[in-house]
Design goal:
It is a single chain. The protein is of the alpha/beta class. The chain is 62% helix and 11% strand. It has 22 helices and twelve strands. The chain has a six-stranded mixed β-sheet, with helices on both faces. It has a four-stranded antiparallel β-sheet with strand order 2-1-4-5, with helices on one face. It has a two-stranded antiparallel ribbon with strand order 7-8. A hairpin with a 6-residue loop joins strand 1 and strand 2. Helix 5 crosses helix 12, helix 7 packs antiparallel against helix 8 and helix 8 runs antiparallel to helix 10. The longest helix has 53 residues.
Length: 594
Amino acid sequence: MANGEQQNAQDIYAALKSGRMALVSTGVFSFIINLLMLTGPLFMLQVYDRVLNSGSISTLTALVLLAATLYILYGFLEFIRSRVMVQIGRQLDEGLRSRAFDMMSFHATKGNPQVRNSPIADLLTVRQFVSSPGPFAFFDMPWAPIYLFVIYLMHPWLGFAAAIAIVILSVLAVINNRIMKEPSAEAQKSIAQAQIMSDESLRNAEVSSVLGMSDVMRDRWESVQATALDAQTSASNRGGLISSMSRTLRLMFQSGMLGLGALLAVQQEISAGSMIAASIIMARALAPVEQAVAHWQPYLGFRSAWSRLSDLMKQTPAPAEPMPLPDPKGALEVEGLSAFVPDSDKPIVFNVSFKVEAGTGLGVIGPTGAGKSTLARAIVGAWPRMRGKVRLDGAEVRQWDAVSLGKHLGYLPQDVELFEGTVAENISRFQPEANPQTIVAAARQAAVHEMVLKLPDGYNTRVGAGGHRLSAGQLQRIGLARAMYGDPALLIMDEPNANLDAEGEAALVQAVANARKRGATVIVVAHRPSALAAIDTLLMLKDGKQVAFGPKDEVLAKVLQTGPPKAERRSAKPANGLQTASTLSIVSDTGKPS
């Protein structure tokens, strides 16, 4: 854990360090820019006090040329400062986006599923704020005392008046923070919840429509959306009130400064030029405070996003850099494995142990809720383990780099999802410059080659989000081809024939046999007995515990001796040599996580 925390600290430090020099440059530019902001009031002071009194056109011309040059330099530096902040935001994104994506993936499978895509969204919020004009207020605000000192040099009363104005606006900024903090946090939470509900409604739109649930789901979403809108409206209204008060008071203070300067000018204590210059300088001194108030809500969002991102990095273990190991052959050993669903501390699989040699075909059977799918997910590392070991060729799978090991694993989950892209890209797992012959070979192993050729653009047909719609059986067969891509040493399939017809099942059996023939270890979570035709070893689970393991005939004989539950015993109708099939009716799985 200490190493993980140290790595997380290094990730954050590296991301900040990459923009440190840019921040220093921005500070230097801000220093020069704020000096150049005195061009206007000093030009005004010279025109009123020198040019108008002397009537010198040459002096006016020189002042105009000098002011124009300084304004051009100001505009150039302002442009450069904006670009630097954009670059800082880009560097932060580039430094942390891989880590943010890894955290999202980790919590989706092994951590807290509620995290969802929040690391990506928080990183976007951080980058957008850093790249906006909002941070300029914090760079310019330290100059307020300097401007006050310049005004004070013109006349102490002007300095005192400007100081009071800045204090009042600063108090408003503090009040703005306090009254907006809670509704802003509530709005962000409700917006995230509404987004989750909209995503779920989109995924289940077909079921909702058929079962007449559309109105109910819409009402639930509208309720959450209304809560989010109320919180956001409350925060915006409060922030708008303070922002309007800040702008109004700034204008009043600026006019009041002009009036006080006029009084002092009438009393011959300052010149007319000093009166105008003091008013302009005070406006510049108040600008960062007003800008901070105007950008306070985005700043609160930035601060919350950065805090969540930092905390999540501390909570999420950083991936280690394991030593490369030889390509695995497929010998699998599971020792005392207990596993659970992410975001839960209650194990579903208890103390499972077995060992199979490379080339073995292992079927996992058991009644619904026995823990078959959980075991499959724990073996491939998709779900977390509570304790126990999973060894591949004698090495704990955690000793492999996940990406390197993944190239030697084939996995077909219950619910097959394809990514947005072509059929060929999905089969090849989006490997850059994948060999077309290897793609076709995987498709042929899954007996999906002919089916793919019948699609509108063959292997170039786009599927996934916004792509060609495929049937459940087509999805499963393409998912099987993806699992077999690259001849993996360990192939795990969860209900692989759930959506297949007789032709697809025959192809599945042949694919399992071919994979075993080349030396791969194949694990099949059985739903229908036909999936076990090319399997010679069975593991039976019940209530998350291992109750039998061994040759298929021996395990099935044990199941026959103990008999299925009473309810299923009445429904089973073994006949015409289908005793094995009826026995396997007790090992079916509804598709829910077990």
